[in-house]
Amino acid sequence: MPSDDGLGRARSVASRPRVPVAMQRQTRRDWPATLGLLAPAYGVLLIAVFLPLAVMAFFSFLKQAPFGGRPLVFTLEHYLAFVNRPYLIDVAWRSISLGLWTTGLSIAIGLPAALALARATRGRARETIFILIILPFWSNGLVRVFSWTMVLRDGGIIDAGLRWLLPSLPPLGLLYSFPAMVVGLVHAYLPYMILTCYLSILAIDDKIVEAAASLGARSFTIFRTIVLPLALPGVMSGAVLIFVPVIGSFMEPRILGGKVGVTMGTVIEDQFVQGFNWPLGSALSFTMLAVVLVLLGAFSRVPRPRPTA
Amino acid sequence: MRIELDRRRFGQFVGGAAAATLVSSAMVPGLARAAGETITVLNWQGYGTDEEWALKAFTQKTGIKVVHDYFNSESEMVTKLQTNPGAYDVVLVNSARTSQLGADLLDPIDLVKIPNARDLTPALKNHPNFMIGGKPYGCVWVWGITGLGVRQGKVAQGASLAVLTDPVFVNRAAMNDDPIVAIGIGALMSGQDINAPKDLKRVGEKLRDIKKNIRLLWQSEVEWNKAFAADQIDVSVFWSGAAIRSRQNSKLPVEFIMPREGALGWIDTLTIPKTSKNKDAALAFINYMIDPDFYYEWSTKIGAPASANAAAMAKLSDDDLNKVVHKAEYLGKLQIHGPLSDATRAAFVDLWEETKAFYAK
Questions:
Q1: Pick from B78, B215, B353: which is nearest to A270 by CB?
Q2: A250: three-class secondary structure by DSSP
């Protein structure tokens, strides 16, 4: 197939390393400068991320939080939580399916938006649309979620609007449901997907698309065989950026999910806030981290465009 | 515990501060020598002790200045008390926590030195929650009930907690999303001790029975008021003080019901840390805090839980909602939240999480 041929060649043009040898040598000589530039970032990460995580990891092996003069007793029992508490498997599955739905919908909405942004707009129009997309990031997350309750609740904007059209409608019960949580989460995380997809689509060389078009490929074929594979790294990083925090989310499920909103996030939050059981909360967090890493490992096996020599 | 979250929110619910300067309250000459000192009070914000008008009146009366420090959770209170010896003179302690602080951090209180203590309700004055070695480690201040808040006319007074499972209220009931309260309610429904239920399985069964009716698991008063105002719930496990505020401030048709099986109760005390350097002034302040005149202003103008001082409750008019809801005879029907061991608390949280996961299915 001619278009496949074209794609193969195009790929090799797009992804061949172009760093001159001289520059590589220079980089090697400048390593103290590089180190100096990286040090502040890694210093902050060390103090702000690694240390607290290390403390939490330590806590997760304790029988009880060592506050108020309680003795240090080590145990592995908190890591058996899923064995001792079978209901957690249901809860974990709800969290994971929440993550899958949110990520899936974000791809379905975000990828076309990024495509339109990168391919069909220029100059001021692009800037305006760009700002409209990141606008939700400028407002407080809690405010966003509460505004969704105004929209979704019985007698809220959607319910009242539909009732105005069809007065005999039974109550919709949109709020406090699984879809309500997904809606709130998609709203919160969609910009990540659009931004990562936008960047990878922007990096696609116009010439490749033109070449495909000149060889007779139609829009859909170009999208399927050129744009989508080349945008895949963006989709994947967007998916990771969304999937991981959604699995641990607790605010949106609590407020939009009501009694359905029992997720790993809320269970862990309760262990810290209500139960004062930091060890169990930490162990559950690390268990979920392990689950996420396994899932991501599985994801990363998805074929991605390889440079062809 | 969420009960305290509620009480912390007082300040947000009340309207403008009561400008009223307080009618004179008899301070004892023996305490007057504390004049000129400054005491530091550790409490939830907006919980009685920091009412501006009251502090002004107190300082005028005694010459003692009062400054405040606040905590946002009980564990924060414990930490502050442990790590700042000498910093505090009066600390609000939920009596369920007294034994945890114990004689190491607190001083026993000689109630004879607090003149107003003579009128303290006998059932509360020496409650076992804060007695250590036969001495009270705190002066009981206020108390409240967690019972049923219902839509007026839907449930009769003296109803059973079983209304929570009544098919009439399918999808019309609410529960407090707090493990200590939820397990307590389950224990009451299965006729057990709320602080040490022997058969947790039965408690879990009782709580699972509510599933069909549960519409809402609420954590804050605002959340509850919104659901009730939107006509989503009819019966709910609710706080007595919150029910009064919903009725008086939000004009909602809420009625508070003392269930036939009894209800959950809590007691807050004012304590003096062992390391306080102004103990006489602290006693004078506690005396003022249980004074009927202060309480009358606080309850009628701002909104307060029930006073532990019988004379203060007597000062309220008979149709005052606070007095109607917090009848003295109810005290005998309450099971008061007491100290919980770490293991018990963990078991309560576990059972409640399991129940919530069951509700979510």
A1: B353
A2: coil
Closest C-alpha to B290, from B143, B82, B137: B143
Question: In terms of Cα–Cα distance, which of B280, B226, B229, B250 is closest to B34?
Answer: B280
Distance CA(A249)–CA(B200), nearest Å, equals 30
Answer whether A276 sits within 8 Å of B345, measured CB to CB.
yes
Among candidates A269, A268, A222, which has minimal Cα distance to A7? A222
Characterize A200-212 residue by residue with b for buried, 16 or more Cβ atoms within 10 angstroms of its Cβ, and e for exposed: bbeebeeebbebb
Looking up tokens 């299915």, which residue turns up? B361
Residues 6 or more apart in contact with residue A11 via CB below 8 angstroms: A305, A307, A308
Nearest to A178 by CA among A104, A238, A95: A95
A70: which chain B residues are within 8 Å (Cβ-Cβ)? 342
What is the distance between the alpha carbons of residues A78 and A286, in angstroms, rounded to a whole number? 10
Dump pLDDT digits (tens) for A85-141.
999 999 999 999 999 999 999 999 999 999 999 888 888 888 888 888 888 778 888
Mutation target to probe the A interface, by most A beta carbons within 10 A, among B3, B350, B351, B358 is B350
Q: Scanning the structure block, which residue is given the tokens 């193969």?
A: A8
Residue to substitute from A75, A270, A282, interface B, most B β-carbons within 10 A: A270
Q: Tens digit of pLDDT for each residue in A138-193? A: 888 889 998 998 899 888 888 888 888 888 888 777 888 999 999 999 999 999 99
